[in-house]
């Protein structure tokens, strides 16, 4: 599969490249990004280069994952992707630079990615289900998923792994036919952000 670029009113999504290595390394040293994701710690330019030339490039070629840089104008402000693509399902993951949080950019990026994921091929992936996971306490990520229409499916005890350590995580799912509107039924704990 070739790289697919997506554009909305305020964000543009494209595959991160070697020109983005320094910016990715800078952002992945943010304590919030490091705390809620599985990026290596400490994170340096060599990690960003391996990410761009390995995981990103290999994912697009194999069709097993689609990873996009989120750009506000020309500035890389985050990353989003569909991973583990198989049998018409995928997992969505995302992070955003501190200065870009809270303005709706991530919600727009998620909507673009879901549109592409659920669209029938050849214009999209033809997915039936997209799953969202976050380590317990990541209410900011939960808010994005809730606004996008994901349905709460539960807390998994020691369900996630972060740098060799098992952690509790949350799970939600969105089906192709689900309305893409905010969903009720999420537990109160998913509204309270904690420290990663």
Walk me through this protein's architecture.
With 196 residues, this protein is of the alpha+beta class. Helices cover 29% and strands 32% of the residues. The protein has a single domain (6-191), classed as 3-Layer(aba) Sandwich (Aminopeptidase), CATH 3.40.630. The protein has five helices and eight strands, in the order E-E-H-H-H-E-E-E-H-E-H-E-E. Helix 1 packs across helix 3. It is globular, with a radius of gyration of 16 Å. The termini are far apart. The mean pLDDT is 97.
Blueprint (SSEs and pairs):
Layout: E1 6-7, E2 12-14, H1 21-28, H2 31-36, H3 45-62, E3 66-72, E4 75-86, E5 89-96, H4 105-118, E6 129-135, H5 139-148, E7 151-162, E8 165-175
Parallel strand pairs: 5-6
Antiparallel strand pairs: 1-2, 2-3, 3-4, 4-5, 6-8, 7-8
In short:
By secondary structure, the protein is an alpha+beta fold. 29% of the residues lie in helices and 32% in strands. The chain contains five helices and eight strands; from the N terminus they run ββαααβββαβαββ.
């Amino acid at each position: 599969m070739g790289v697919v670029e997506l554009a909305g009113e305020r964000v543009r999504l494209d595959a991160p490249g070697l020109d983005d290595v320094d910016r990715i390394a800078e952002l992945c040293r943010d304590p919030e990004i490091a705390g809620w994701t599985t990026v290596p710690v400490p994170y340096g330019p060599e990690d960003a280069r391996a990410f761009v030339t390995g995981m990103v490039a290999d994912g697009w070629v194999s069709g097993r994952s689609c990873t996009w840089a989120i750009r506000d104008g020309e500035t890389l402000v985050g990353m989003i992707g569909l991973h583990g693509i198989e049998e018409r399902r995928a997992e969505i993951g995302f992070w955003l630079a501190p200065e870009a949080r809270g303005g709706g950019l991530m919600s727009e990026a998620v909507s673009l990615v879901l549109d592409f994921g659920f669209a029938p091929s050849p214009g999209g992936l033809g997915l039936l289900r997209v799953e969202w996971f976050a380590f317990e306490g990541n209410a900011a990520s939960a808010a994005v998923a809730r606004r996008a229409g994901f349905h709460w499916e539960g807390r998994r005890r020691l369900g996630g792994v972060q740098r060799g350590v098992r952690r509790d995580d949350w799970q939600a799912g969105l089906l192709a036919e689900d309305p893409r509107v905010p969903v009720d039924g999420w537990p109160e704990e998913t509204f309270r952000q904690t420290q990663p």
